[in-house]
Every structure is written in structure tokens, then in C-alpha cells.
């Protein structure tokens, strides 16, 4: 039986329906005891011009805190999941993730420098930390690419080794700076564990254009990823330039990753777990995996963020929740792969 390489409308509609349900539930329910019926009444009042059952303060919690946080979680989840799928296609490695080429290390080092050098951000229109994290993530990937090119080879193995080297170096710099400024360690590690607890509409507008642009490029290039999976020689014989395609895909995926890191810190496992889930449910073609990863990734992180903000009186770091979800998933993957091999 021939594997399906196109996205069925029924599958797409099902994914969108699940995403809408998750968004609605995450907006209606929260740590604040507003009552989902009253929140629904507020939303209905805004749509119809009726009278809201919420006070002005309660309405502000919904529209200034809860709604932008849910939307931002969706953007971050979509960015990380689609970027992870693209990295797995480029490197032909199912364990590749968006941080493979030093994006996490670059963002972490830049964030640490900002925490140390600019502890007070009062009066800034846009906080320096997200800007530095964005630039650091792109800088880490750029250094990996330049180091790989300087070796005289453009293969994925060389680029992967360059990413490992750059990530190790940037992490060493970050650790050195932290040891010189031990009072900042808690703040830095809080950011590195990931979270959306200080998010608002400003963060949504900061991330949206980059994630949207990257998503469009990745979806348009999904067919080329399928061609690359056949091998460079076969791809070249079909008129595809493997080096240029890889560069375009890595730039788009890195842009989405940098935007996600800038507004949420480092959130692991999303870029690995979600593409695997999509492959198991809908097929391995990247014309299916990339668009569905955008949808499933958004739903996954919105649900994870809901757990993070409601499971305990304080707020659990979002990266901890995704790690709890990701680790058992890999146990299941290992067991299923062992079953297929036996």
C-alpha cells in the first residue's frame, strides 16, 4: 500500500477542531476562580455588545492576561514543533530538535549577559532580554553554519558537529559569567526553564510576524524535504539543489525557534515529541508532518501551559511540564521500535 503524501482535509479539519477546543477551554478555565460560565458570558458580551457578568478587573484578567497567554503558547508551540520537524528532515535524524545548532546555547548566553549587565529594565519599550535571546539564538545558529562552512564541507554531519562545538563553547561562556555573578543564577535558570507567566499582547505581536513567516516558508518547502529524504544524488537528479534547500529550511526553522525562545525561554521536547506524534497518526510525508506539527504543536503547548498554571498554587515552569510529558513518550517510542525489530 502506497504511503499517503498529501494532507487529507478530514485530518486537517480534525486537527483544527482540536486546537479550537483547547484554546476555548484554556481561556474559559484558569487559576483565577472566575467561573467558566461567567468568562463565556464576558466573551459573548464582547461579541454581541451585551452586558458582561464580570467586573472590570475580572475582564482585564481575561483579555490582558489569559487570552494573550493562550495565543502566545500556541505560537511558541507551533514554532517549536514545525522547526523540530524541519530539523529532523534536514538532518534525517528523528531525534533532531530546534536547539540542535546552538540556538538554545546562544539564547542562554545572551540572556545571562543581559541579566548581569542590565538588571533594571524600567523605561524600556521592549525589554532587552527577549531581544538579546532572539539575537543570541540566531547568532548561535549562524556561528554553527559558518564553522561548518569553514571546514570545507556542507554535509549535515559536518554541520551537526559544528553545532555541538558552538553549543559547548557558548554554554561554557554562560557558565563562566554565572560563576562571576552568582546572585543572578536563580533568575537565569528561571528563564531557562521556560514559561509564559509574564506574557501579554506585546509578546504576541513580537513573535507573530517571525513565526508566521517561518511557517509559510516551511509549509511551502515541505515537498522539498520529501525529495531530500531520497538522498542528495536523487534530489539533484530531480532538479533540487540540496545545499540551498537545507540553508533555506534552516534559516526559516531557526527564525521560528529564535522568536519562540525570545518570548518563552527554553522549552524542551516540543520539537521532538510533536512531529513523532504526527507521524504516528497521519504519516511520514513532510507535506503532512509540517502543517500538522504547526497545529498539534500549538494545541500541545497550550494544554501544557494550562497544566503549568493550574496544577499547583504557585506556577510550575512550563519546561518542566513538557519534560514530564516528553520523557514517557520516548519510553513508548523505544518499546514500540524494539517490538518492530524483534
Automatic annotation (TrEMBL):
Protein location: Cell membrane
Matches recorded under Pfam families: FecCD
InterPro entries xref list: ABC_BtuC-like, ABC_transptr_permease_BtuC
Keyword tags: Cell membrane, Membrane, Transmembrane, Transmembrane helix, Transport
Transmembrane region(s): 12-31, 70-87, 99-118, 124-147, 159-177, 204-226, 247-278, 284-304, 316-334
Top-level taxon in the UniProt lineage: Bacteria
Keyword Zinc-finger carried by entry: no
UniProt feature coiled coil, ranges: none
Membrane topology: Multi-pass membrane protein
Subcellular location, principal: membrane
Entry annotated with the keyword Transport: yes
Recorded family membership: Belongs to the binding-protein-dependent transport system permease family. FecCD subfamily.
PANTHER family per the UniProt record, alphabetical: ABC TRANSPORTER PERMEASE PROTEIN MJ0876-RELATED, FERRIC ENTEROBACTIN TRANSPORT SYSTEM PERMEASE PROTEIN
Protein name: Iron ABC transporter permease
Upper classification of the organism: Bacteria, Bacillati, Actinomycetota, Actinomycetes, Pseudonocardiales
Amino acid at each position: 500500500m502506497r504511503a499517503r503524501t498529501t494532507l487529507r482535509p478530514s485530518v486537517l479539519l480534525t486537527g483544527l477542531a482540536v486546537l479550537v477546543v483547547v484554546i476555548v477551554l484554556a481561556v474559559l478555565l484558569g487559576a483565577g476562580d472566575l467561573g467558566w460560565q461567567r468568562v463565556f458570558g464576558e466573551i459573548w458580551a464582547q461579541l454581541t455588545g451585551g452586558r458582561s457578568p464580570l467586573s472590570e478587573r475580572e475582564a482585564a484578567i481575561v483579555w490582558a492576561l489569559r487570552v494573550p497567554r493562550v495565543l502566545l503558547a500556541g505560537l511558541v508551540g507551533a514554532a517549536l514543533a514545525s522547526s523540530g520537524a524541519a530539523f529532523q528532515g534536514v538532518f534525517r535524524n528523528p531525534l533532531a530538535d530546534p536547539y540542535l545548532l546552538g540556538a538554545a546555547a546562544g539564547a542562554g548566553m545572551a540572556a545571562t549577559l543581559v541579566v548581569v549587565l542590565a538588571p533594571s529594565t524600567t523605561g524600556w519599550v521592549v525589554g532587552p532580554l527577549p531581544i538579546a535571546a532572539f539575537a543570541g539564538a540566531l547568532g548561535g545558529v549562524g556561528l554553527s553554519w559558518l564553522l561548518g562552512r569553514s571546514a570545507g564541507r556542507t554535509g549535515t554531519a559536518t554541520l551537526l558537529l559544528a553545532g555541538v562545538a558552538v553549543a559547548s563553547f557558548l554554554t561554557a561562556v554562560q557558565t563562566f559569567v554565572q560563576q562571576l555573578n552568582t546572585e543572578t543564577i536563580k533568575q537565569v535558570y528561571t528563564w531557562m526553564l521556560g514559561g509564559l507567566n509574564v506574557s501579554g499582547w506585546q509578546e504576541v505581536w513580537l513573535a507573530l510576524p517571525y513565526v508566521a513567516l517561518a511557517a509559510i516558508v516551511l509549509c511551502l518547502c515541505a515537498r522539498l524535504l520529501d525529495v531530500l529524504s531520497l538522498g542528495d544524488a536523487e534530489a539533484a537528479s530531480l532538479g533540487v539543489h540540496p545545499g540551498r534547500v537545507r540553508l533555506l529550511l534552516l534559516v526559516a526553522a531557526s527564525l521560528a525557534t529564535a522568536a519562540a525562545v525570545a518570548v518563552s525561554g527554553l522549552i524542551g521536547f516540543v520539537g521532538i515529541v510533536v512531529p513523532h506524534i504526527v507521524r504516528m497518526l497521519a504519516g511520514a510525508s513532510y507535506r503532512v508532518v509540517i502543517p500538522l506539527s504547526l497545529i498539534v504543536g500549538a494545541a500541545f503547548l497550550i494544554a501544557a501551559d494550562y497544566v503549568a498554571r493550574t496544577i499547583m498554587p504557585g506556577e510550575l515552569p512550563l519546561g518542566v511540564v513538557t519534560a514530564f510529558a516528553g520523557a514517557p513518550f520516548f519510553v513508548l517510542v523505544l518499546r514500540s521500535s524494539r517490538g518492530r525489530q524483534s
